[in-house]
Amino acid sequence: MSEVKFYSAELRSIDAWREPEGGWTWNASYCLEDGLYFGEDALTTRKILAALREWKFLSEASKGRLRVEHDWPILEIQMRGTYEPVLALMFEEE
To answer: I need a surface site. Which of 8, 45, 56, 59 has the fewest CB within 10 A?
Structure first.
């Protein structure tokens, strides 16, 4: 049986402003939870968003409205239409 690797992450709420030329810049971020664990098989967009809904960091109404931008070790949860960052998972580097 193979060993499953787990990754620890801090979940942060993002306050960002929109740049005049487009895009977003983080103004501030606030820790919501430290020590969330994801198995390496759970690092897909669908599974990450499902876990955040299960843990009540996202509502059921968020289904279909969010996207995940992968830039390891930070995964940014964004609004689908505007790309506004709302949450970030900051994974510990090995």
So the answer is: 56
Our count of domains for the chain comes to 1
Cα(68)–Cα(26) distance, rounded to whole angstroms? 16
The pLDDT of 4-23, averaged and rounded, is: 94
Domain encompassing residue 66:
6-91
Domain assignment present for 12: yes
pLDDT at 17: 95
Tell the burial category of 49 from Cβ atoms under 10 Å away from its Cβ (0-12, 13-18, 19+).
Answer: buried
pTM of the entire predicted model: 0.89
